[in-house]
Amino acid sequence: MADLNQTLKTEGFHDILIKERGYLAVAPDKFSCDMYDFLKSGSGSINNYLGRFMVQYSWAEFIIN
Question: What is the value of pTM for the model shown?
Fold first, then answer.
């Protein structure tokens, strides 16, 4: 956590994490995320999919097949 906090602070994202006792989350209004955009917009966002999803991870192949 210390490394993550330091990296986020160094990159100017010190306020992206929401930390409370026994609770850790991100503030989705502080960054852009295609998954959050999809969940917010619904099926209309499916047109943004270009056929490449996590291709660098062999374990993710089953998701797109």
Answer: 0.53
- Give kind and range of the element (H or E) at residue 17: strand 17-20
d(CA 26, CA 36) in angstroms, rounded, equals: 12
Residue whose C-alpha is closest to residue 29's, from 13, 43, 49: 13
Backbone torsions φ then ψ of 24, nearest 5 degrees: -140, 130
Where does residue 17 rank: exposed (0-12), middle (13-18), buried (19+ CB within 10 A)?
middle
Q: Walk along the chain (65 residues) and give the pLDDT tens digit of each residue.
A: 889 989 999 999 889 999 999 999 999 888 888 778 777 776 666 676 676 677 777 777 766 55
Determine how many CB atoms are found less than 10 A away from the CB of residue 28.
15
